[in-house]
Design goal:
Helix content is 76%, strand content 5%. The protein is mainly α and 198 residues long.
Length: 198
C-alpha cells in the first residue's frame, strides 16, 4: 500500500514538473542547456559519441514533428516547423523542454550496450543471493525491501525531473543513475519476500 502511495506521489511530481517547467523557464534557457551539456559530453566521451547523441536526438524529435538540433556556424541550433501551439512562449518552452529531454534520453540510448550488463549482473546477483538465503533458511527483510523500493522510486523520479529541467547536469551523473537503479533492483530482489495468504 505504501509503495503505491509513493508511486502516485512520484507520478504527481513528474507531471507537475512537465506542466510547470515551461512556464518557469524560457525556450532559450532549455536550448542553452543543450549547448552547454553538449560541450561537456564531447569533452568527457569524445566528439564521435557527442555527434551520435545529436543524431539520435534529431531522429527522436522528427518522429513527433518537433524541433531538431544540429551544428550551425560552429554552434548548435534548434529548428522546427511552427504550429498553432508553439507560437506562444509557453508552447515554445514546451518544445524546447522536450528537445532537452530527448537529448538527455539519447545519452542512455548511446550507451545502452554498456549499461545493460550492469542491470543483468545486479539482477542475477540478487536472485542468487535470494536463492542462497532460502536454502540456508535465512530470513528475508521486508523492511529493507520496502526501503529499496522507496529509493528506486526516488531515483527514477529525480532522474526524470533532472532530464526535463534546464539545469546543467554533468553527463556522468546521468549515466550513474541507471547503474544505481540496477544495484537497488538487485538488492531489492535479494530481499524480496512473498507473503503467503492463508
Amino acid at each position: 500500500m505504501l509503495t503505491r502511495i509513493l508511486v502516485v506521489i512520484a507520478m504527481a511530481i513528474c507531471l507537475a514538473t512537465l506542466v510547470a517547467a515551461p512556464s518557469r523557464y524560457t525556450a532559450d534557457e532549455f536550448r542553452a542547456t543543450i549547448v552547454n551539456e553538449h560541450g561537456l559530453f564531447a569533452a568527457v566521451f569524445g566528439e564521435h559519441h557527442a555527434a551520435s547523441v545529436l543524431e539520435r536526438t534529431d531522429q527522436l524529435r522528427r518522429l513527433v514533428g518537433g524541433p531538431t538540433v544540429h551544428h550551425e556556424d560552429g554552434g548548435l541550433s534548434a529548428h522546427g516547423a511552427p504550429t498553432q501551439f508553439n507560437k506562444s512562449n509557453y508552447g515554445q518552452a514546451v518544445d524546447a523542454m522536450l528537445l532537452l529531454a530527448g537529448y538527455r534520453a539519447s545519452y542512455y540510448i548511446e550507451f545502452l550496450p554498456l549499461l545493460l550488463p550492469f542491470l543483468v549482473v545486479f539482477i542475477i546477483d540478487g536472485l542468487t543471493t535470494r536463492s542462497v538465503r532460502a536454502r540456508e533458511f535465512l530470513p528475508h527483510s521486508p523492511g529493507v525491501y520496502g526501503l529499496l523500493l522507496f529509493l528506486m522510486v526516488a531515483v527514477l523520479s529525480g532522474t526524470f525531473v533532472a532530464i526535463c529541467l534546464p539545469w546543467v547536469v554533468h553527463p556522468l551523473w546521468l549515466m550513474l543513475s541507471p547503474v544505481f537503479l540496477a544495484f537497488l533492483a538487485g538488492r531489492a530482489t535479494a530481499n524480496y519476500h512473498k507473503h503467503l495468504r492463508a
